[in-house]
Amino acid sequence: MDIERVHALSDNYVWLLHERSSGQTVIVDPSETAPVVEALKAKGWTPSHIWNTHHHGDHTGGNVALKGLFPGLQIIGPLADKARIPGIDVTVGDGDRFQFGSSEVAVFDTPGHTRGHITFFMPSEKALFPGDTLFLLGCGRTFEGTHEQMWDSLKKLLPLPDDTRVFCAHEYTQSNARFAVHVDPGNAALAQRKERIDSLRKQGISTVPGTLGEEKATNPFLRAADPELRRSLGLGLELPNWQVFSAIRSAKDSF
Known about the structure:
Blueprint: E1 2-8, E2 12-19, E3 24-28, H1 34-43, E4 49-51, H2 57-60, H3 63-69, E5 74-78, E6 90-92, E7 97-100, E8 103-109, E9 118-122, E10 127-129, E11 134-135, E12 138-139, H4 147-157, E13 165-166, H5 173-183, H6 188-202, E14 210-211, H7 212-218, H8 227-233, H9 241-253
Parallel strand pairs: 3-4, 4-5, 5-6, 10-13
Antiparallel strand pairs: 1-2, 2-3, 7-8, 8-9, 9-10, 11-12, 13-14
Helix pairs in contact: 4-9, 5-6
């Protein structure tokens, strides 16, 4: 499986997945058309599918134009938000599995950022496409859902293997790191990671993808159960995890 990063808009990433045995190619969350077409031409790939994680225009903006350029292109998106996905052909939801070439794809409903958000996971490739649910060192704002919903969505991803690669949809890592060290100042692994991130961004190098194991160790939004983080926030051990997550999300919104 070949996975290519396409830079779009100001900070979006569109992902191209090419399955060699079948020759199929997926476009994940095409925010716009031109950079995607340019990348496809450079690789000599013809897209067979689009996967949309949610309805926002910076994830679906290229759907209709790409469908016009590539006859037969099939758009797969969330059942819970099918009315807002331009050009959608196939709907999927929590627990669904489908084939992409020789690889199986699992679907999680991950509402919170939007009410119909989904996440795609390819176990054989150890590749996670969480859209705007999970970012490196961050998570999406809860525009349509609740903090409790978002925590429940993130919890679904925690049992996945640590070596799962996280192909999120935005380059927000450096700003997320600034917040993370603010709320989790005693985390040595986080401090070291921030130094690496700052160095990469100074050189103009992308930080995405990362690994889920590193997120579990350093992303405050996945660490609501951690006693040290709770102490740093002045929160007691008796609070439910989702309420700790809510405090972290609220703090980030005003950071």
